[in-house]
Amino acid sequence: MIEIYWGDPVSLVSKAGECQSFSTFEKAQYWLQRKWPADDETRRAALGAIDAAMDCLMPAKSARRAFVTAAIAAGYRVSDVEPAPLLRAA
How far apart, in whole angstroms, are the C-alpha atoms of residue 60 and residue 73? Predict the structure, then answer.
C-alpha cells in the first residue's frame, strides 16, 4: 500500500503526555477510525475531509485543519516539537 504524505508532520500530545506524529493521510484516517477517544461531529468531519483529500476533492491543507480541529476537541494538544526518534541499543 502506498501512503500519501500530507506535508509537515502534525504532532499531537495526549493528556497523559504521549506524543504521536502524523505525516500521512492513512495514519490520520486510521487513528480517527480506530484509536480516537471521542465520536463526535469534529471527528466525523475530519474523516470526511481526509477521504475527500485522498480522492483529490479537497486541498490537503483543509483536511489537516479538520484533523487538528478534531484533535483539539478530543483533548489533544498540538505540539510544535517533533518527538525524538527511538534509539536502539547496539
Answer: 20
CA angle 56, 60, 63 (to 5 degrees): 105
Better-scored residue on pLDDT, 87 or 45 = 45
* Distance of alpha carbon 62 from alpha carbon 31, whole angstroms: 18
- For 24-77, the pLDDT digits (tens) are 999 999 999 999 998 999 999 999 999 999 999 999 999 999 999 999 999 999
Task: Put the strands of the sheet holding 77-79 in their side by side order.
Answer: 19-24, 5-13, 77-79
β-strand pairing of 5-13 with 77-79: antiparallel
Closest CA to 25 of 44, 59, 53, 1: 53
The 10 Å Cβ neighbour count of residue 76 is 21
Cα-to-chain-centroid distance, residue 81: 15
